[in-house]
């Protein structure tokens, strides 16, 4: 069985070819995202405990179940007054992993949709805060909620989110970057990494996050991310026309 730690760029490119076939013919970006995560997990289930694919859409474009989840979340946080139709929501669209419930996004209890409602709200989520910073987006743009600025900022996405030791690494405030330490301990999570890309001409950027049962170096995560760039090109038209369903 294959491990990410011992795979080469050639191996990762072979996976991209598999993903291209798996995604081909998908009628929505949501279905393409699920096919994508399934292909990644199938190829590297010896390494991967959970792989998830997220993408942004404006709040007003969410299907009703997703909108209800976000409404409950912002109400619990006392932030209902801040949600607007144009507020970007980072939606879980694809998920594959060890547990059966991790293979259906509708069964996600806590990560169905993350509203990019304010810099302070996102900064309170250590993993998300570091992820956006390491991808080159930062947080300052969130408070401005300026469409042109958002699109410009997304266009500068680069880099890889990387946590070598999920059980130990902390942020500048001393918080564990992977806050769900019960999850880390239960599934022996070692390294975590993520990468993303903006869809030009849209308000959408996508992010893939992998939770591994092995330790890898950042260079390997960067290799993997570079090889997966074909997914974004393949799904551009779906992002423009049919995201959910």
Structure description:
The protein has 245 residues and is of the alpha+beta class. The protein has a domain at 9-51 and 118-240: Beta-Lactamase. Helix content is 40%, strand content 17%. The chain is built from eleven helices and six strands. The protein has helices at residues 9-23, 29-44, 64-76, 119-123, 126-134, 140-144, 147-154, 181-186, 218-227, 230-234, 236-241; strands at 48-58, 88-97, 113-115, 161-163, 192-198, 205-212. Strands 3-2-1-6-5-4 form a six-stranded antiparallel beta sheet. A hairpin with a 6-residue loop joins strand 5 and strand 6. Helix 1 packs antiparallel against helix 2. The model has no long low-confidence stretch (mean pLDDT 91).
Concise synopsis of the structure shown:
By secondary structure, this protein is an alpha+beta fold. It has helices at 9-23, 29-44, 64-76, 119-123, 126-134, 140-144, 147-154, 181-186, 218-227, 230-234, 236-241, and strands spanning 48-58, 88-97, 113-115, 161-163, 192-198, 205-212.
| CATH architecture annotation name of the domain at 9-51 and 118-240 | 2-Layer Sandwich
Work out the radius of gyration.
17 Å
Count of discrete alpha- or pi-helical segments spanning 4 or more residues: 11
**How does the overall form come out from the CA principal axes?**
globular
- Mean model confidence by pLDDT: 91
